[in-house]
Fold these 2 entries.
Entry 1:
Amino acid sequence: MSKMLLFTELLIQQKNVTMEMNKKMRAGLLLVLFAGVFCACSGNVGKIEVEGALKSCEQKMKQTLSQLETDSCLLPRSMSLKDSLWSLVSVYDWTSGFWPGILWYGYETSCDAFIKENAVHYTACMEQLLEPQYSGDHDLGFQFLCSFVNAYRLTGEEHYKQAALDGADKLAKLYHPVVGTICSWPYMKQQKGWPHNTIIDNMMNLELLFWASKNGGNPSYYDMAEKHARVTMKNHFREDYTCYHVAVYDTVSGELIKGVTNQGAYDESFWARGQAWAIYGYTMVYRETKNKEFLNFAEHVADVYLEHLPDDYVPYWDFYAPNIPDEPKDASAAAVVASALLELSQLETDSLKSQKYFLEAERMLCSLLSDKYWAGVTSPAFLLHSTGNYPAGYEIDAAINYADYYCMEALVRYKKIKENS
Ligand code: GLY
């Protein structure tokens, strides 16, 4: 709390205005910050105050920046809800791209030079991932999309484009032509004896391959990404469209050996974030291919998720966790799905479906922006109550950077839809 107030003071001093104006500004700023609720929910249909929420995101980004060492390449990943201090990771952590990605969205919505300066700095840090001795895993997609692809989208600078293309080349090296998917975790061959594994999260990272194929990279990456999506559609899902976390494949026949979990409650469970990655992933694949088969599939994987949601639109970490309602929630899954459904609503040509997915996304966003999930002024994070890895016992009921990234993305998408309607 005291740190936040000190930070508020600093902001006001930097503006170099008169004492009288300082008082008024501080009162106004604190009002915005203390409100902390950007959706007035009524009968589950909310009116989202998107500008207020984005302003709060910008304040929180600056609060985080005030906690970080200047010129360091350590990035904020998550925090326990007890102390409001970020745990920091290196660029090699799978979540490293989300912090520069948050800053790029912050720059997009605010045009703030200080936020841009930091987005540039943390994106430059990510270049270490291009060192030849680092081969990486499927997370290269998250890492390069959030940082370099956003940087290129907003600045048009060629070096960002080149870095993203180089990242895509590294990701494509993990593709197995017999199986027809990317090997998500190459080290699991040794650790678990799996010949080839693909996790549902990997659907997100196909976007880097699609992006590269249309931005001067190898055109065959389009086919690679489409094939991965098709093979995953065939093997990764149960009849009711819920998905396994991990599919293990035989590299000689290319056939599925088994579906298992790593982060879900058990192999046949319904891990919330896994399904969220699938909803976002197939929506994105439809955007890129315009193939209605993928649209149809995105609708099915979204509908089963929606059917299982609790009243507040934020799932428990696993829909089949044994002690519901006494299980932690996963706000990160809700943020990913809100962003995905906003996109799905815009891709739909059927107006009833479009309206349905938009309203569901709005309800999710509204819940995330309520005081139950939106972190108050004492925290520099945006969202409370995410679950990272329950079986491994970490980041349970925590604030996590990817929840914030997809929440910010959802807010930006929501704002654009509202402006164009
Ligand atoms: N991609 C890792 C996770 O969702 O936890």
Entry 2:
Amino acid sequence: MEHPIGLKISEPDLADYYPLPPETLDERIADVKARLSDRLLILGHNYQRDEVYKFADYKGDSLKLSQYAAQQKDREYIVFCGVKFMAETADILTTSEQKVILPDLAAGCSMADMADIDTVETAWQEITRFIPESSITPITYINSSADLKAFCGERGGLVCTSTNAERIIRWAFKRREKILFFPDQHLGRNTCKRMGIPLNEMILWDPAKPNGGNHPEALQKARVFLWQGFCSVHQMFQPHHVDYFRKQYPGIKIIVHPECSMEVADKSDLMGSTEYIIRTVTDAPSGSRWAVGTELNLVNRLKRDNPDKEVYFLSPMVCMCSTMFRIDAPHLLWSLERLEAGSIVNRIIVPEADRTWAKVALERMLELA
Ligand code: 13P
Ligand code: SF4
């Protein structure tokens, strides 16, 4: 049995689930969920496709989901419909008796993969040759692996999400004069720019080049070191898409995720996390017009849930998060039925060596949030 759109099916027994009609998948997911009852919690990120999103007990952006996971001490199984860094975060914030499951282990995040512990450690060594370690705070976007969160925790740094990046950066600047921000250059730049930090105080760190491609003098002067990472989905939105919608639909509001480039963010009316985008459009007056710069599944749902408004997708291209998309109804059903049968598939376990400091970095963020 082939995956319907040609993706590799990760587990042999999963092949039995793909021929099932959607109604059967729905029925069996609802049944197994009911049987697992209070032992189970399904979390769903706002980019998940409808066929799994509708089964989530709690939905939201990365911050909301991590806060909620941290409060759930009595659920034995947490099935995370999202991507790997989110499931790792849930594992760090829950007890060792609780089991976090990612229905498809191939659901990663291409941006998170743009920074790894070896290149970040090398960068840190290079930077701290010119700048004392006590004057720089490492901040990682939550879209990163657990070892990078641990790296930050151990060095007085912390995690941020798209909701609280500004608050976290302000906190860091109260303590030390510089920040190293990874892996998303755009969230870092857009946030710092809105805080009034001039562009000439930010430098881009290219991990493939010595000193990140910067002159030692520039390293000494800079306040913000931005890792050269980006989201392949959000980089598809271009400034001319904003111009097109403004011209075509007078009065339209442009709302984008901060992972969009600075050129797009600067032309937009509003910028914020997936939860902020959903809340803003949902609470907007009837008849208002919106062009939304974030993932397609979210925008299509927003369009459907707001028939009294005009909601457009801010790109002629299909900007879908292909890794989020990997979590489908067959994977969800398969993982739940395996759980019920006593076999825990695709459990995410953060190694003990990373867990302690990663938890420190996450808890610093949660305290500030
Ligand atoms: P949010 O935290 O805004 O949901 O964003 C997560 C993400 O991966 C966006 O691409
Ligand atoms: Fe990662 Fe981009 Fe997908 Fe978000 S949309 S999970 S940043 S690849």
